[in-house]
Amino acid sequence: MRILRLYLQVASRWRWGLLLVLILATLLVEPFLGQGPGPELLTRILFALIVLGAMVAGRVPARARHANFVILGIWLVLVLLHFAGRPYPQAMAFSALVLLFGVIYITFHFLITHRESNVDAMVGAAAGYFLLALAWAVLFIQIENRTPGSFGLDTAGDPGGQLIYFSLVTVTTLGFGDIVPVSAPARILTAIAAASGTLYIAILIGSIVGRFQRPPDRGAADPPTQEETDDGP
Question: What is the pTM of this model?
């Protein structure tokens, strides 16, 4: 509990910067460390820290925070059962996606409603962008696990790492073409992922950048300057 309390204090101070680092670390674990109990456990720990960090950074109300804690608790129980040899992969994947899209909603809602125009807001927007890629990666991995061959993967490589790479390439609309969706669900979801990445850049990040460039409004109630008073009738 002391470690958790310390982490929440750090999260309240560094907010979106810490969240961005955790998301990038989660995306890099499997491609660089490969599959295995160690990398898998590290990924699960980072994921739980992302959920907790997002609730702190997004200043989630108490009621919504309690709901997120319940879902996180269910997911953690499923993770423990998984490592104990009694896996429930579909339930664990579903709860992870619910948490992940909940974190995305928290991030978007805070950045849009608070209308902040500072560096912290830009870091939060970057965190949200990589969150989007992470969510699509989890979804692509579940599609491939459920229906092998849904994506044209290299059979000699790690499927999870390849689909994380594919998600990043798709969301950023780079589209190298070395991995392609094969099944109909994979194709339509890939197209939606690409569209979501484009819309994110255009709407959210464009809005935040625009706030940096927009000069402060001078309302009609502003008092006249000395020069305006002297030039009066």
Answer: 0.82
Q: What is the pLDDT of residues 202-229, one digit of tens each?
A: 877 666 666 655 555 545 444 555 444 4
Task: Measure the CA–CA gap between 160 and 166, rounded to whole angstroms.
Answer: 10
Alpha carbon 56 to chain centroid distance? 14
Structure tokens at 161: 């790492």
Amino acid at 104: I
Half-sphere exposure of 98 (CA within 13 A, CB side): 15
Contact 50, 99 (CB under 8 A): no
CA torsion sign for 169, 206, 97, 191 is negative
Q: Is 124 exposed, middle or buried (0-12, 13-18, 19+ CB in 10 A)?
A: buried
Please tell me the total number of residues recorded for the chain in this structure. 233
Alpha carbon distance 150, 144 (integer Å): 6
Tokens representing residue 3 in the block? 């470690």
- CB neighbours of residue 83 within 10 Å: 12
